[in-house]
């Protein structure tokens, strides 16, 4: 039988006191952020968080509720990236719609929180009235640690934490981007380029991996992982627009323009189309462009955008179903659920000019 991982063992592993480990894992003040991160990482590597009932407070709530009680229960929906992950977003808003519909069908309420600081989050959280949590988009480890600490069941959509274990729901990003890349190869595009910050989210990284794998399997060399369009910070439209213009200028001077640009999402692809048009290039006459997600604006683009349809509402529904299943079977293995996504063919792709 494996030995239990205690706070003392974590302290011994790091050469710090048990007091430091306790404060770090409880989210209390008195420990600097670097030390806290070291403790969390060590705890994860040693298997502390995966132990049954490890590090969890006895929250005063019942995981099994009667039909009458369930009408008084709610699920917390955490969306901490308030700059881009909001209910008004053409992507995230659809996911929240799916969550809301699935909860309503079960007679459950929904509480949306956009707090991104762990200390504030603890103050507003009342686990006694919550069945569980659905996290939408990127969420910091410190916030997820607080959820784990109180023993609140959680499912994450479009995000997974390298340290805090949980059930997750994603679109099948890798396979979908691979199919899109192969489609472009099939019509003659042997010089493709991926545009998108691969450190922005797990989904972007998986899309890049699918793109790269398909080119390599076709005997082609994708751009290197240190390409400037892969290492962008964030999704600021003004910065992205300027960086794309500079990148195009360099490529045109070097006479090394790709025939197809595959973008990490539709927002990037629509920006790319605008920049190309400003620079006197035609889509798809001079260069083909594809997106990902199939937001409503993709069909209204000039030209309408070839993209991958992510069933966003289905992702929200799947997360609710998984959360309710987790509440009923807390000790069952964690799952990563992949929702199939399909290519939507529109007018932004054509065969390359001979």
Automatic annotation (TrEMBL):
Stored InterPro entries: HTH_LacI, LacI/GalR-like_sensor, Lambda_DNA-bd_dom_sf, Peripla_BP_I
Keywords of the record: DNA-binding, Repressor, Transcription, Transcription regulation
Pfam families in the cross-refs: LacI (PF00356), Peripla_BP_3 (PF13377)
Boundaries of every HTH lacI-type domain copy: 5-61
Superkingdom, natural source: Bacteria
One example GO MF annotation: DNA-binding transcription factor activity
SUPFAM superfamilies: lambda repressor-like DNA-binding domains, Periplasmic binding protein-like I
UniProt keyword annotation of Repeat present: no
Signal peptide start and end residues: none
PANTHER family: HTH-TYPE TRANSCRIPTIONAL REPRESSOR PURR-RELATED, LACI-RELATED TRANSCRIPTIONAL REPRESSOR
Protein's recorded name: Transcriptional regulator, LacI family
Native organism: Paenibacillus typhae
Taxonomic lineage from the root: Bacteria, Bacillati, Bacillota, Bacilli, Bacillales
């Amino acid at each position: 039988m494996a030995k239990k991982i205690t706070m003392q063992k974590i302290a011994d592993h790091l050469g710090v006191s048990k007091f430091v480990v306790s404060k770090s894992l409880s989210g209390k003040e008195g420990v600097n952020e670097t030390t806290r991160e070291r403790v969390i990482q060590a705890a994860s590597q040693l298997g502390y968080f995966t132990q049954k009932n490890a590090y969890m407070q006895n929250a005063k709530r019942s995981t099994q509720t009667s039909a009458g009680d369930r009408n008084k229960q709610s699920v917390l929906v955490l969306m901490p990236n308030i700059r881009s992950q909001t209910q008004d977003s053409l992507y995230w808003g659809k996911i929240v719609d799916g969550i809301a519909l699935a909860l309503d069908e079960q007679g459950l309420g929904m509480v949306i929180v956009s707090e991104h600081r762990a200390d504030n989050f603890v103050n507003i959280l009342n686990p006694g009235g919550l069945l569980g949590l659905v996290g939408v988009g990127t969420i910091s480890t410190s916030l997820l640690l607080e959820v784990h600490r109180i023993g609140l069941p959680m499912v994450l959509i479009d995000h997974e934490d390298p340290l805090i274990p949980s059930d997750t729901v994603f679109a099948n990003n890798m396979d979908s981007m691979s199919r899109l890349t192969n489609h472009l190869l099939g019509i003659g595009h042997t010089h493709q380029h991926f545009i998108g910050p691969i450190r922005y989210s797990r989904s972007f990284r998986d899309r890049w991996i699918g793109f790269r794998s398909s080119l390599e399997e076709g005997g082609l060399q994708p751009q290197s992982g240190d390409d400037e369009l892969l290492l962008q910070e964030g999704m600021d439209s003004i910065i992205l627009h300027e960086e794309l213009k500079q990148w195009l200028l360099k490529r045109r001077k070097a006479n090394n323009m790709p025939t197809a640009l595959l973008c990490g999402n539709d927002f990037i692809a629509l920006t790319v189309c605008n920049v190309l048009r400003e620079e006197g290039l035609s889509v798809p006459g001079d260069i083909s462009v594809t997106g990902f997600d199939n937001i409503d604006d993709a069909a209204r683009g000039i030209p309408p955008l070839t993209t991958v349809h992510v069933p966003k509402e289905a992702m929200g529904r799947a997360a609710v179903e998984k959360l309710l299943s987790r509440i009923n079977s807390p000790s069952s293995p964690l799952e990563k659920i992949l929702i199939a996504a399909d290519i939507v063919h529109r007018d932004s792709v054509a065969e390359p000019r001979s």
